[in-house]
Amino acid sequence: MNNIKVGTSGFSFPDWRGIVYPKALPQKDTLKYYEEELGFDCVEINSTYYTLVSAKAFQSMQEKTSPDFEFIVKGFKGFTHDPFDDRLGTAKPPLKKALEDIDRFNFSIQPLKDAGKLGGILLQFPVFFEPSEKSKEYILTCKNKFKDAPFIIEFRNRAWAREATFKFLRENKIGFCIVDEPKLERLMPFMNEVTTDPAYLRLHGRNKNWFNAKLSERYDYLYSDVELKSFVPEVDKMAQAAQNIYIMFNNCHAGSAIKNALTLKQLLNITIKKNKLF
Question: Mean pLDDT over residues 241-256, rounded?
């Protein structure tokens, strides 16, 4: 039987107050509420993209969750974005700094590894990270740094959307992050390709104003029930190729991710707790 887990890309946002969480709920109790009251058994940690989170913080997170709860941790921009962003000019950090940041990142997530709660590491590379031998060498360097942790790559540049990419990932046991995002010229199309176990699906919403919207508005999108039903056969297809499947909703604006995740769990016949959001 497949192990299918559905969660959200983050669990703590100011605009979830009064929508997802009770207004009076202490901040320290949000993760516990996310698991015990909303009924989720996994979460994708996104704050790690913006800063290197301490090992103490991860220790605290894992202590607040049950033994079968899992975390997917997103890579720090210091080793996924900054080294390749020409817009930074002479301020662009050298690769040596990026590799040092990976070591710091690895140290910080050790409590999740020790507790058996690390579901995987997600590296999301930007639009300006283009296919090349140099890019593939860097990906392999990252994989080697992360050793035996499940390793998943999300590409934003649609130039990676080709069979050679999937061949490279399969040969090197690297997961491909299937994405649903706006159908815009530069972004990746939806491609249901499973290159490792676990399989990974990330849903960003379909806000067509992606490139011009503020970051806070980019993920402002609520999937309709009809749109969510269209993913059921896609998940079935993923289940034919992998035993373990993670599905994460990143349309976190105003709690849309929670609402959509609960609906998809019902459509997939995954047991959910009844709550006021559903």
Answer: 96
Strand order in the sheet with 199-203: 3-8, 244-249, 199-203, 175-180, 151-155, 118-125, 70-74, 42-45
pLDDT in tens, 183-206: 988 889 999 999 999 999 999 999
All domains in the chain, ordered by first residue: 3-267 (3.20.20.410)
Q: What is the reported pTM?
A: 0.94
Give the separation between CA 154 and CA 159, rounded to whole angstroms: 13
DSSP of the chain: --EEEEEEB-S--GGGBTTTB-TT--GGGHHHHHHHTT---EEEE-HHHHS---HHHHHHHHHTS-TT-EEEEEPPHHHHTGGG-GGGGGGPPPHHHHHHHHHHHHHHTHHHHHTT-EEEEEEEE-TT---SHHHHHHHHHHHHHHTTS-EEEEE-SGGG-SHHHHHHHHHTT-EEEEEE----TTSPPP-----SSSEEEEE----TTTTTS-HHHHT-----HHHHHTTHHHHHHHHHH-SEEEEEE---GGGHHHHHHHHHHHHTT------TT-
Name the amino acid, one letter, at 255. Answer: G
**Choice between 220 and 243, residue whose per-residue pLDDT is larger:** 243
Instruction: Name the residue with tokens 């590296």.
Output: 123
Tens digits of per-residue pLDDT, 121-163? 999 999 999 999 999 999 999 999 998 899 999 999 999 999 9
Q: Round to whole Å and give the CA distance between 118 and 267.
A: 26
